[in-house]
Fold this protein.
Amino acid sequence: MVLGLSSKKEKIDGVAESAGVSLAASAWKRLRRSPVFLTGAVIIGLFIVVSVLSPWLAPHNPSEPMLIDQVVKARNEIPPAQPGHPLGGDLQGRDFLSRLLVGSQQTLIVGVGATLIGLAGGLFLGTLAGALGGWVDSVVMRLVDVMLSLPSLLLAFSIAAMFAKPSQFTVILAVAIVQIPVFARLLRGSMLAQRHSDHVLAATALGVKKGAIVFRHMLPNSLSPVIVQSTLVLATAIIEAAALSFLGLGNPDDRIPEWGQMLGDVQNVFDTHPHLAAYPAICIIIVALGFTLMGETLREALDPKNRR
């Protein structure tokens, strides 16, 4: 009889332990078995490693025209692939592989910088709207609606064109401003849902100050979907930054390579040298795909409705 009670208790304890798995642990259990998530994570991991180590991985100085003697502009000839230069050279006789590798670092800086600034602005506006409500919420949301009503690339182009001197920072700022309403709307919706949760109502009943409720209870519990969204926004930021650089609104100094800028430099010779555009375009597509795959699987895994 005692043995039966003991085994029954162990069984109950086992159920209790399995039922107590957190949402994060449950999400990670699904993510590590997801080939889509693992594919995205591998792509992003390789991209970050190459970006960080690109100054040492690049076989040559990306700004030095060491193959300029093989460039014949009259016949539209550029240095072909050769020993020491597996991808040949560009229109200025610079090693193309080195420019691709170093360009990944600039692309990462633009994407991460734009996402962080957009996230900070979205957190500020979303917290104001979700915490204060009333006319503040109405004003902030109408501003967000106006920004979301415009195509993101067109809005980024308009903002970047306002600066007298284009640079890498103007591209980061233009793309970041476009991302602010995305984060603001998402955070505001999460905070409105938190406003009526049990722990917030209990804290209000106990007389806890509103500021403490917002920053200790509502905001921390509302950040999960925003953080997941930032991985998706990173993919969009990289594409939009490349588009602005392609249109000539990026850093005018081509000695510092960037994938979008490399695309813009070869648009006039695409028919004769398509590989000069194909390589940076493929890099942009693969990196954006990696962030998209990882972001989508994260969003699905962290959704409580998908828990088994």
In short: DSSP finds twelve helices and no strands in the chain. Residues 60 and 98 are 6 Å apart (CA to CA).
